[in-house]
């Protein structure tokens, strides 16, 4: 069984940045990229909020550049998925979907969190063309437009409020006639004149043309009435699922499954195991914050190995 100083599970801006710092520290990291190499940014079009690109950059190009930079310093990549790990003792054991097995002195988990979608026809194909799960990332592109957001919790209220900075009207589509969101978040949404609730309603179809989303079909769950609503943006405010199933409850997580890190550091409850990016961040969920946490994780892994 091949033994490594450091294995990084997952890619994206967190994993790639961790690999960059680790490879420059001569840790010879192995990155096991997972089912979606590059993470969620590979499904994003224009990225205008990552520093250093005054004209913006396409998400896939940004991820390709990050990976290329790590390869320059000797990072190795394996295009497979980690199915299980044994963290009961060091070196840790890592088992991959393709049958490969490794031992690792340290482990960085950067497997991210997958946005929840509705499962509608053409939904995934329209990501970046009117469908989004990140208002902070994409709200700017909907200036003076009408948008809809699905959800009834704090995430939906927060995203809807953010969208009002750009959109001329934001409709919150919710399956019930009451919200799950906290009272302060509800009040913020109710008191915003740009936000309007669409109660007891579910989105059933996304209508689009070659330019992207043009409307949605919705069904009133009490009356059964189906109507069409014009919109250029459909945002998912129904949360994210952290990709931690392969850990088999060996790492301490919060009630939503996000990894709990220790204080200001990326350390987990298991010495030698670190977490970075969206898998431990349910609040910011930005490429730049993920990259920063990847840097921290690599530096902590280096310090751990030195000690």
From TrEMBL:
Pfam families associated with the record: Pyr_redox_2
GO BP, sorted A to Z: removal of superoxide radicals
Superkingdom of this protein's organism: Bacteria
Domain FAD/NAD(P)-binding residue range list: 5-294
NCBIfam families with a match to the protein in the record: TRX_reduct
Subunit structure: Homodimer.
Organism: Halobacteriovorax marinus
Record-stated family: Belongs to the class-II pyridine nucleotide-disulfide oxidoreductase family.
GO molecular function, one term: thioredoxin-disulfide reductase (NADPH) activity
Keywords (A to Z) from UniProt: Disulfide bond, FAD, Flavoprotein, NADP, Oxidoreductase, Redox-active center
A GO term from the CC aspect: cytoplasm
UniProt cross-references to PANTHER family, sorted A to Z: THIOREDOXIN REDUCTASE 1-RELATED-RELATED
Enzyme Commission code(s) on record: 1.8.1.9
Name of this protein: Thioredoxin reductase
Catalysed reactions, as listed in the record: [thioredoxin]-dithiol + NADP(+) = [thioredoxin]-disulfide + NADPH + H(+)
Cofactor(s) the protein needs: FAD
Co-factor: note: Binds 1 FAD per subunit.
């Amino acid at each position: 069984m091949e033994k490594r100083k450091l294995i990084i599970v997952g890619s994206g801006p967190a994993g790639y940045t961790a690999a960059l710092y680790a490879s420059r520290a001569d840790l010879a990291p192995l990155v096991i990229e997972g089912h979606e190499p590059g993470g969620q940014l590979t499904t994003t079009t224009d990225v205008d909020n990552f520093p250093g690109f005054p004209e913006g950059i396409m998400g896939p190009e940004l991820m390709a550049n990050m990976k290329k930079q790590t390869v320059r310093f000797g990072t190795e990549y394996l295009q497979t998925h980690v199915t299980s790990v044994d963290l009961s003792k060091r070196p840790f054991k890592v088992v991959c979907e393709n049958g490969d097995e490794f031992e690792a002195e340290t482990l960085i988990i950067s497997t991210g969190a997958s946005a929840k979608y509705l499962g509608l026809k053409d939904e995934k194909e329209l990501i970046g063309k009117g469908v989004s799960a990140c208002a902070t990332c994409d709200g700017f592109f909907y200036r003076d437009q009408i948008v809809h957001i699905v959800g009834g919790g704090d995430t939906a209220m927060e995203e809807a409020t953010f969208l009002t900075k750009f959109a001329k009207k934001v409709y919150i589509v919710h399956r019930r006639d009451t919200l799950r969101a906290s009272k302060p978040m509800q009040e913020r949404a109710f008191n915003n004149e740009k936000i309007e609730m669409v109660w007891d309603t579910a989105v059933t179809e996304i209508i689009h043309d070659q330019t992207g989303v043009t409307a949605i079909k919705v069904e009133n769950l009490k009356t059964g009435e189906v109507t069409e609503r014009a919109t250029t943006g459909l945002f998912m405010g129904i949360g994210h699922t952290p990709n931690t199933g392969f850990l088999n409850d060996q790492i301490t997580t919060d009630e939503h499954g996000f990894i709990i890190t220790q204080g200001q550091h990326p350390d987990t409850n298991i010495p030698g195991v670190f977490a970075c990016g969206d898998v431990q961040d349910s609040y910011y969920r930005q490429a730049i914050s993920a990259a920063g946490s990847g840097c921290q994780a690599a530096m902590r892994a280096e310090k751990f190995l030195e000690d």
